[in-house]
Amino acid sequence: MWKSIQWRATLIAVLTVVSIVAVLPSVSDILPDAWNRKMPKIHLGLDLQGGVFLRLQVEIDKAIENTTLRYADDSRSICREKGIPVLGWQKEGQEGFSLSFPPGDFAGRAVSLLKDELPSLDVSLGESTGQGARLVGRMKPAEILAIRNNAVVQGVETIRNRIDQFGVREPQIVAEGEDRIVVQLPGVKDQQRAIELVGKTALLEFKLVDEGASVEDALKGAVPEDDEILYQKSVDPQSGRANKIPMLVKKRAMLTGDTIKTAKVNFGSERGGAYVSLSFDPRGTKVFDRITAENVKRRLAIVLDGTIYSAPVIQERISGGEAQITGDFTAEQASDLAIVLRAGSLPAPVKVIQNVTVGPSLGQDSIRKGLRAGIIGAILVVVFMIVYYRFAGLVADFALVFNILFLMAGMALLEATLTLPGIAGVILAIGMAVDSNVLIFERIREEIRTKKAVRASIDAGYDKAFWTVVDSHVTTLITAMILFQFGTGPIKGFAVTLSMGVAINLFTALVCTKVVFDYINAKRPMQALSI
């Protein structure tokens, strides 16, 4: 008997010490700074510690338009690679485009070719004119539907990848309706930086600079058909003034950012600052090797979201699959750029339609009210148990203290995020902590009424109530798991605290209270029990 009591008491003592050490960094700063930095802590959600709330609108129509333009560029490239001359092209609404060809069978050959090469397009001959024939390509309805359905889903995943690398704990990023995304970033104070990180489309393109055409003529309106004017940002080191340098580049991207394998920040560029170094996946490495081999001594512009960051001259063939993006970056700007490049580009541009900075004052008020509610609830439970179950109720209250301590320690060790619904889960766990003891005590009462000895009544009460307590807790745990699996942020917070409270309650109700009764009976058998 004594050995059983000793190992259970030792287990409770060890768990108590570990729990106190685990909880201290979250509630006090009495521990050394080095210890505080290494120890896991309970993190507060947006509703408690403040942060940034963003509501974004995904411009799905723009995604469809961008896809159409890519199909038009691909179609022209495919035709020219097969020796079919293309005189020009133009958009045909949001979902289509047309190509014009010289007289002859060029248009018919192009239709057959593109049907094989681009199965997502409906390709047909357009009206012929004296100058030649036209081809009309339109995206199939299934392709358009897929773009609409995937734009928000892919946007959520891309933003989540960026935020995870940004280091925000427990962000909430969920789709809302057909074209909106809600982003909650607890603890983030720099609202503008968060908006730039989340909202940057991050479409990286490598385009050849057209050095054979005049930039001055292009600025006056004489832009060659295959070219476009883009600007490179430059900062004067003396005055700090930002300048925009116009450049004439090819519309067609030779390589895009979807082939990037890694992107990281380095220091020591030609300008002495930070820069981003890139490495490509096998496909990107192969393409980059071919581009640099075919265009030695030409300039290759590195374009991100329509802005040229650098346009170095290709001095020689680059076979290693690596490149650099240099510019007037601070370390923070280079880090953010590397994050969005690693996470990938958004499938469609997003527009911030609501941004709110939640101040910590709201969080402090919520914490204060939540703690007050928890303390009042705990006091009422403690008083009720003592009044109704007397000494046995005091034992249950003893277990309640351990229940709360172990619950807080568990949240700290898992580095869980505490939210207002999470506080509600804690308060519910307090009620459930004594609910199990109520079932056990009522069983003990029934055994005492049959004139059994106190010790035998206690043992029988725990034995007979055991499976009832386990069943009730397992069903609650299943519900909590379903809430966690399918719920959004606040619901997940409630589910975490509820499920942990249920699991811990099984231990405190069946072990902590029983060891008290066993200890008393081992020292001096109880002749009566105040219950």
Describe this structure in a few short sentences.
This protein is α+β, with helices and mostly antiparallel strands and 531 residues long.
Distance between the termini: 24 Å
- Give the overall shape: elongated
Per DSSP E runs of 2 or more residues, the count of β-strands stands at 19
CATH superfamily of the largest domain: Multidrug efflux transporter AcrB transmembrane domain
The low-pLDDT segments are: none
Provide the CATH top-level class of the largest domain: Mainly Alpha
Instruction: State the major sheet.
Output: 6 strands, mixed
Mean pLDDT: 81
**CATH structural architecture of the largest domain:** Up-down Bundle
| Helix fraction by DSSP (H/I, runs of at least 4) | 40-55%
- Please indicate the percent range of residues in DSSP E strands (runs of 2 or more): 15-25%
Radius of gyration: 34 Å
Strand order of the largest sheet: 11-10-16-15-9-12
**Count of spatially separate domains:** 3
CATH topology of the largest domain: Multidrug efflux transporter AcrB transmembrane fold
Please report the number of helical segments.
Answer: 14
Structural class: alpha+beta
Structure notes:
With 531 residues, the protein is of the alpha+beta class. The chain folds into 3 domains: 2-47 and 360-523, Multidrug efflux transporter AcrB transmembrane fold, CATH 1.20.1640.10; 63-143, YajQ-like, domain 2 (Alpha-Beta Plaits), CATH 3.30.70.990; 200-357, Gyrase A, domain 2, CATH 3.30.1360. The protein is built from 14 helices and 19 strands. It has a 6-stranded mixed β-sheet with strand order 11-10-16-15-9-12. Strands 7-8-2-18 form a 4-stranded antiparallel β-sheet. Helix 6 (141-166) packs antiparallel against helix 10 (331-343) and helix 11 (360-413) packs across helix 14. It is elongated. The two termini are 24 Å apart. The mean pLDDT is 81.
